[in-house]
Amino acid sequence: MIKQILKEPRRSSELPEVMEQYEKAIENPRTHVGPQGTGALLFAVFRGKVSEGIDFTDDRGPGQMRDFRWDTVS
């Protein structure tokens, strides 16, 4: 299983290009990822640029990975 790994860009102006790469990797992974391609992973900030007005449906639905780091005060 080989997936293209993408990350949310810092600049909003770069987001359309990243989303296009993500869509292409999902729609036709063997062409855009490689002969053993199976899709893409898109890492993004929760409630960041990627979440603004974009509806992920069907096979584009988001999985969530969370990192909760809490500093404890003694």
From TrEMBL:
Cellular component terms (Gene Ontology): nucleus
Annotated transmembrane regions: none
Domain called ATP-dependent helicase C-terminal: residue spans: 4-61
GO molecular function: ATP binding; DNA helicase activity; hydrolase activity, acting on acid anhydrides, in phosphorus-containing anhydrides; nucleic acid binding
Pfam families: Helicase_C_2
Source species, domain of life: Eukaryota
Gene Ontology biological process terms in this record: double-strand break repair involved in meiotic recombination; nucleotide-excision repair
This protein's name: ATP-dependent helicase C-terminal domain-containing protein
